[in-house]
Specification:
13 helices, 6-stranded antiparallel β-sheet
């Protein structure tokens, strides 16, 4: 609609001089008629351009395959010597904390999220009356969805030869899949699907149409994914077709292929040796692990859980978490970006909390924190995270390191240092609107907040001339400004958050 309006404005400007001598009504009629002619021509040009790109892509498929071994998977780091919680000496609580500022240079900058990929040209839906087709219904992330598909959507890949794949790609581009693409992109927008969720929506659709992981389903996923603007490569091993998705993120525990400093992962299967079609689709963009918007899922809630601060008993809340969202997070890959593994925690910390949770928990928190000083409010939130959650090691519960999204920390019965730091920085940003950072020591993750109150004293980290007050959600009952015993701020790594 926006692009059509832009075209209309452009047309009005171009014809206004010609029709200035005519009546306004005449002008409107002519403009309306000529605009639709112009719009139709533009849409035809879009279709012709996309068709030409796909035909050229199909021809490259015939000739640009190369056998490659994958690089071995990068294992997720283990906390070999995790730092257990320490109880703060309450006798010191009433004594003022000295001002100790640590000049700091090792600041890890997390690359900013880019806008989600878009098709090389706008996808113009075909009018219902001009297309015979069906609607395919599916349930994804708890949402009931309906997607238009061509009537004759079925095709067969008799084998995975280059010519056979190329012919099938051409046939797909000649089929009326515009409505399918338009519906998928609208669903991505309407449900605020992140890139990982969108890829899995395509898989759910294709696997449903072909009753499983067939070569035909894989090719359809690859075609729809490329038309949506995403980076991918086709690959094969004997009689099996695969799709590799490209990303700037290093995903843990998955073999990968590197092309032009992008990491490519097999959407399914763990084959180490593949024959890969090494060509690019125009304007393709890498998959991102960032979740910049709340994923819209139906409300299916867990049993109630009560969380209460020890030092501030009025901070007692009964919450429930959305199980559809928890299930989605449970299958989410973990990885880092920018060649620094500490950035992986920023993906979790920068993810927004579900609106329903905000409307319940945050409403109560705002009421309690109303009128409190910055220092008192931050101390109350810190103690809430320190004392309302039960600490346990990931190795014992999950068999290995696993960071939580903020919503998961509110859901699961146990949380370690990284989960607490991630949740605390989310609460501080949302409720007190202060800048935050994560502070990584060997075997431990804490946090820091940029206080704007000059009267607050304690351990500060100097980040580009700004004072960030150290806050440790695992230093039980410690107030803001206290570094956990045994931690050295001068040797820590700081990850600034959005």
């Amino acid at each position: 609609m926006k692009k059509n309006f832009q075209l209309f404005i452009y047309f009005l400007l171009s014809v206004s001089g010609t029709h200035a001598q005519n009546s306004f009504e005449d002008f409107k009629k002519r403009a309306h008629s000529d605009f639709h002619t112009y719009k139709h021509k533009v849409e035809q040009n879009f279709d012709a351009y996309r068709k030409r790109i796909n035909e050229e892509f199909a021809e490259y498929i015939r000739a640009t395959w190369v056998g490659m071994e994958s690089s071995p998977e990068i294992p997720q780091p283990k906390d070999d010597n995790p730092i257990p919680p320490i109880i703060y000496n309450r006798e010191k609580a009433d004594h003022p904390i000295e001002e100790r500022t640590t000049p700091f240079e090792d600041i890890i900058r997390v690359p900013q999220p880019e806008p989600q990929p878009e098709p090389i040209v706008p996808i113009v839906p075909i009018e219902e009356k001009e297309q015979t087709g069906n609607r395919y219904s599916l349930t994804y992330m708890g949402n009931d969805m309906s997607i238009r598909i061509p009537q004759d959507y079925k095709f067969t890949l008799h084998n995975c030869s280059e010519n056979n794949i190329a012919d099938a790609w051409r046939n797909l581009s000649n089929s009326p899949y515009d409505n399918t693409l338009a519906d998928l992109l609208n669903l991505r927008k309407d449900y605020r699907l992140c890139d990982w969720a969108y890829l899995n929506l395509l898989k759910t659709l294709a696997y449903g149409l072909w009753n499983g992981k067939t070569n035909e389903a894989t090719l359809l996923i690859a075609y729809l994914y490329a038309q949506s603007g995403y980076m991918m490569k086709l690959a094969q091993n004997k009689d099996r077709l695969y799709m590799l998705f490209g990303s700037k993120f290093v995903l843990y525990n998955k073999p990968y292929w590197n092309f032009d400093d992008y990491y490519y992962y097999n959407m399914e299967g763990e084959e180490m040796s593949l024959k890969i079609c090494n060509i690019k689709f125009p304007k393709e963009q890498a998959l991102s692990l960032y979740i910049t918007q709340e994923q819209r899922v139906p409300e299916t809630y867990s049993t109630k859980r009560t969380l209460q601060s020890e030092a501030y008993p009025e901070m007692r809340f009964t919450i429930r978490t959305n199980m559809n969202l928890i299930e989605f997070y449970n299958s989410y890959p973990t990885g880092y970006i920018g060649k620094n593994e500490c950035t992986r925690w920023a993906v979790y910390a920068n993810t927004p909390i579900n609106e329903k949770t905000r409307n319940t928990l945050y409403a109560s928190l705002r009421h309690i924190l109303h009128g409190k000083s910055q220092k008192d409010a931050a101390n109350m939130l810190l103690n809430f995270v320190q004392t309302s959650l039960v600490y346990e090691y990931d190795e014992k519960i999950w068999g290995g390191d696993r960071a939580f999204f903020p919503e998961e920390t509110l859901h699961y019965p146990y949380a370690d240092c990284e989960d607490r730091a991630i949740l605390f920085t989310r609460l501080i940003r949302d409720l007190l609107h202060l800048k935050t950072a994560l502070v990584f020591y060997p075997g431990h993750l804490a946090s820091a907040i940029q206080t704007t109150d000059p009267d607050i004293t304690g351990d500060f980290i100097n980040i580009n001339g700004e004072r960030y007050l150290v806050c440790d959600p695992t230093f039980i009952n410690a107030p803001i400004g206290c570094t956990m015993t045994g931690m050295d701020n001068s040797k820590a790594k700081v990850i600034r958050l959005d």
